[in-house]
Design brief:
single chain; alpha/beta; Rossmann fold; 14 helices; 8 strands; elongated; prephenate dehydrogenase (NAD+) activity; 6-PGluconate_DH-like_C_sf; Arogenate dehydrogenase 2, chloroplastic
Length: 390
Amino acid sequence: MATSPSARLHHQPSSCRRLPALTPAPTNLQFLSARCRWRRLPGAAAPPLRLRATGAAPPFDGNGWLPIAAEGEKREDRQQQQQRLKIAVVGFGNYGQFLARTLVAQGHTVLAHSRSDYSAAAAALGARFFPDPHDLCECHPDVVLLATSILSAEAVVRSLPLHRLRRDTLFADVLSVKEFPKNLLLGALPEEFDIICTHPMFGPESAGDGWAGLPFVFDKVRVGDCPARRARADAFLDVFAREGCRMVEMPCAEHDAHAAGTQFLTHTVGRTLALLELGPTPISTRGYDTLLRLVDNTCSDSFDLYNGLFMYNKNSTELLNRLEWAMDAVKKRLFDGLHDVLRKQLFDFEGSPTDPTELLLVGGDLDSDDEEDDDGDAVDGDESASEVNN
């Protein structure tokens, strides 16, 4: 008897045989698999076959939850959906490298530029360093991230060959003040460029254990209405959201009003305490140790950062004046209290005369009319003077 066509598809032609009577008939999935193998080109590897049951319920564990493998697949799908960006970090110093580590870890392409040669540091982080800003801009990054110092930001922005960038490039900054870079970027960049002003309220010292829960302030100053440009802006902000940052959308002016207290005041107190040359003692309290940590944290930053917090935040001058007034008020209260104690010791002793004019005579009697005693005092005074002259 001739072999059935389905059996020929399922078995290799060289080993075709009649199936035993007790062997169950091949299923449709087996037929499909055999047909795929039969039509495969010679020498081509068979693709892995994934069987899916239409309408079948997903497998659950005993607690009614999806197994770990299924959850892992969902996370992989979300990661694949994440938009990969080409980000140019302009200013690749300590803070720029700190941000680049996370950018590279998330799968973004990082291009770096700085006045100093950080090519070795960039290579170690998995980034590409460009000494020439023209070469950097010709790579057409999706995002240009300004991570320079506040004092050099304007010079760096105006030195970039903006004409070599795409017309819809997104510019962002991570400076510690916000109104200044906002006005700078609005004035220096073409109108087609998008602008997001941001401030990660942390650094390498404070974020040593990760960014989770730390505040990240941002202001979408100018983002085009095109869906692609909105998606790119969201993808950039998602860099920080994925790390667990507490995302705070806030206007630049409001940020600077708060930052005068949260940053400038903190740095001022820390640097003032540093001038006292404080150190640990055998009886240090927790509060004192906190002050020492404040000194270490603030003085580890450059003075240019502190100077920039003062010069480029109009709220800092007022706060510095208020701080000086508060210190004078505390001193006045202390010295007034000290004077009150001294006055009580000098004037409020028991049995003191009620008339303040009597305090001018110690041990004297204003009611005495003894002229002889007055003459005696005068003679004694003359004798004393004579003894001195002799």
